[in-house]
Design a protein that fits this description.
The complex is a heterodimer of chains A (207) and B (216). Helix content of chain A is 67%, strand content 0%. Chain B folds into 2 domains: 66 residues; 128 residues, Jelly Rolls, CATH 2.60.120.10. In chain B, a hairpin with a 2-residue loop joins strand 1 and strand 2. Classes of the chains: A mainly alpha (207), B alpha+beta (216). The complex binds zinc ion.
């Protein structure tokens, strides 16, 4: 599973990072998923390690100042940590999503420098949710959404990941199997178990 | 069908977050209405991401900023994002729904001169001013030129000028060399960005000055 793959690329304490000839696209997407579904700090450490030097380099080009570049690293990675659930793998690479998060943070920082206003309008310009996305509206009722999340929290971790992937992140069972590195059959059986349990807990009104 | 799109250069700068706020909002509104530019934007963002991330190899001696890491992860909550209800405006008895990009950005109430009505978009953007411009049925903007540029994005209704007719989503960027006189039969609502006051071409500029100020 995700955490096992991370062991090769992620050595947070040593500060070492081996140059990779190819982008670890799958590990990056898996890590975003793990951060979204289980607030996985090891997975976030992998993203942090991979992106922070690159964001810093971009920031120095953009602002010509190391302090501002570090502010961009902090702003971008905070958003990655807090908004990972808004990443939809079927819509593009993890690097592209992180780029848009960084671009938005950079836009807001540039505006703050130019005008004294503190407003952040990047998400009005480049919304991080796609409203045309089917499935976004299934849980539009906040109250029901919150309730379902509470029930979800009572599921075992493995089942919770599957339900979140299929119902909240709108992935197909095949995509999810690939992301979790488990067979499709396992996704199906976990989903079935989870739905049974949810149905028992939530009672008749959600049938 | 939309025939007028932002130039490729504008779209590139938009994708990089380097356009001024008023123009960024204009391109964002167009992109939401235009599947062609949506696709183009997605391609550009993927390309930008490659340049920024994939073609860059991290140095071996870069330190892991443990303090920043702890700082970020100490708060486990997530940012929930909810749809904002659309904003409606009424001008001259007609109701319009504003584009999504304008739902959280404020705008003033409409000021009217004759068949023209303008509401200022609350965006501080140096010399650039963004407005909602309404032209009532049968109205027109008198022949004018300007030293900077004038962007007109048709949101609702129709208008036509010397070059043809326009549909919602059409994005027209004119610089000082062009002059035009848009007219509408049904009425229309536009999003405009203007970089300097307008100069009216027909010797009655004194009379038209208020309109120049209204539109800028
Ligand atoms: Zn277009």
């Amino acid at each position: 599973m995700v955490s096992q793959q991370l062991q090769t690329g992620c050595k947070p304490k040593t500060g070492q990072f081996t140059a990779m000839p190819e982008t670890p696209s799958k590990e990056l997407a898996n890590s975003l998923f793990a951060v979204a579904t289980s607030r996985d700090k090891r997975a976030f450490a992998f993203l942090f390690q991979y992106f922070s030097p690159k964001i810093k380099r971009f920031g120095i080009k953009q602002f010509g100042s190391e302090a501002q570049a570090m502010e961009l690293v902090q702003e971008t990675l905070t958003s990655v940590w807090r908004k990972a659930h808004l990443y939809h793998p079927e819509k593009g690479a993890a690097t592209t999503w992180v780029y848009t998060v960084m671009r938005n943070a950079s836009f807001d920082m540039l505006r703050k420098m130019k005008s004294s206003k503190e407003e952040c309008i990047s998400e009005d310009i480049w919304p991080l949710i796609d409203e045309a996305e089917p499935g976004q509206h299934e849980f539009s009722d906040h109250l029901e959404d919150k309730q379902i999340k509470q029930y979800l929290d009572r599921l075992p971790q493995a089942q919770r990941e599957v339900v979140r992937g299929v119902y909240f992140q709108d992935m197909s069972q095949e995509q999810l199997a690939e992301h979790l590195n488990i067979p499709v059959g396992t996704v199906k059986s976990r989903l079935r178990l989870a739905l049974q349990k949810l149905r028992n807990e939530m009672g008749e009104q959600h049938d | 069908m939309i025939k007028h799109h932002p130039s490729n250069e504008l779209l590139v700068q938009f994708s990089e977050g380097n356009l001024p706020a008023t123009l960024s909002v204009a391109v964002a509104i167009h992109v939401e209405m235009c599947p062609v530019c949506q696709k183009q934007l997605a391609t550009l963002e993927a390309k930008n991401a490659n340049t920024a991330f994939e073609d860059v190899v991290n140095d071996d001696d870069i330190c892991f900023d443990q303090l920043m890491f702890d700082n970020i992860t100490s708060d486990e909550s997530i940012d929930e994002v909810y749809d904002q209800p659309a904003i409606k405006v009424e001008v001259k008895g007609k109701e319009y729904t504003l584009p999504r990009a304008l739902t959280r950005i404020g705008h003033s109430s409409f000021m009217q001169i004759g068949k023209l009505a303008r509401s200022r978009i609350a965006l501080d953007d140096g010399a650039l001013r963004a407005s909602l411009l309404h032209i009532d049925a049968g109205g027109e903007i008198p022949d004018h030129t300007h030293t900077g540029f004038e962007l007109t994005l048709l949101l609702d209704g129709e208008f036509s000028d010397e070059d043809g007719s326009y549909v919602p989503g059409d994005f027209m960027m004119l610089d000082g060399r062009h002059n035009h006189t848009p007219k509408t039969t049904e009425g229309c609502l536009c999003f405009t960005v203007v970089s300097s006051a307008l100069h009216f071409n027909k010797g009655i500029s004194k009379l038209l000055n208020p309109i120049g100020n209204l539109i800028y």
